[in-house]
Amino acid sequence: MTDHTVKAFDDDINALRALIAEMGGLTEDAIDNAMKALTTRNLDLAKQVVAGDTRIDELDAHIERLVVQTIALRAPLADDLREIVAVLKISGIVERMADYAKNIAKRVETVTANSRMEPLSLLPSMAEIAREMVKSALDAFIARDAKLALQVIERDRAVDDFYNSIFRTMVTFMMENQKMISESAHVLFIAKNLERIGDHATNIAEMVHYVATGEKPPEREKSSMIDPMER
Fold it and tell me: Is residue 202 situated within a structural domain?
């Protein structure tokens, strides 16, 4: 590529990274605020999380347009094309994580009506790990940091362990409190949303590792638990 084309491509990449960073920051806030709304019974904050998802969707669409434009105008090859494709995939993943945060916020009104469920006390810690994974995965992408990406992948087990613990506790709780099965199911769905956020952060980290090194990271150890909520 000519010097002019290289400069233009670098500008496009930097713009895409900035958009991913903005989108990621909004998603981190959505996760944090959804959990704050849940633990403080703040329905107004929950509604703000739901409404804020529109901006994240707009960023996702903008990134997709810019990626298509960059490929058409700059015709990137090899490592450059790999990074452009990674941006497009990561944008879609971040958008889905934001949807999970929105789903949590939508359940706040139902769950907060019942405070006797012990697993509620575990959800904030689980959410904090998941949110930190999202931040670290996106930081790794911006910096092309394969080492940080591996650290994110390793943390996924902690989120899975939280989910498994909550799942077992909720099953026991539902057996002993059959009148609260519906509300308990909402708690399980919240835990599942957090578990999926952790999985998606791990997927981003795996992509970052591949973009930075050209090699796939080691295979993750899968949970042996059979999860009927797995889709």
Answer: yes
Give pLDDT tens digits for 1-18: 555 467 787 888 899 999
**Could you list the residue range(s) of the whole structural domain that residue 95 is in?**
3-213
Tokens of 223: 């949970």
The C-alpha angle 91, 199, 224, rounded to 5 degrees, equals: 160
Q: What is the pLDDT of residues 21-33, one digit of tens each?
A: 999 999 999 999 9
Domain CATH for 21: 1.20.58.220
Helix ranges restricted to H, the chain? 3-40, 43-74, 78-106, 108-111, 123-143, 146-176, 181-213
How far is it, in rounded angstroms, from Cα 65 to Cα 59? Answer: 10
3-40 vs 43-74: helix crossing angle, rounded to 10? 170
Cβ neighbors of 211 (< 8 A, separation 6 or more) are: 79, 82, 83, 86, 141, 144
Q: Is residue 222 part of a domain?
A: no
Q: Are 192 and 119 in contact (CB under 8 A)?
A: no
Residues of the chain with pLDDT under 50: 4, 226, 231
- Residue 219 located in a structural domain: no
What confidence score (pLDDT) does residue 145 get? Answer: 94
Amino acid at the residue 3: D
- Amino acid identity, position 196: R
Whether 101 and 34 have beta carbons less than 8 Å apart is answered as: yes
Q: Nearest to residue 216, comparing CAs of 121, 84, 45, 82?
A: 82
Give residue 161's identity as a one-letter amino acid code: D
Q: According to DSSP H, which parts of 41-107 are helical? A: 43-74, 78-106
Q: Which residue is associated with the tokens 């960023």?
A: 59
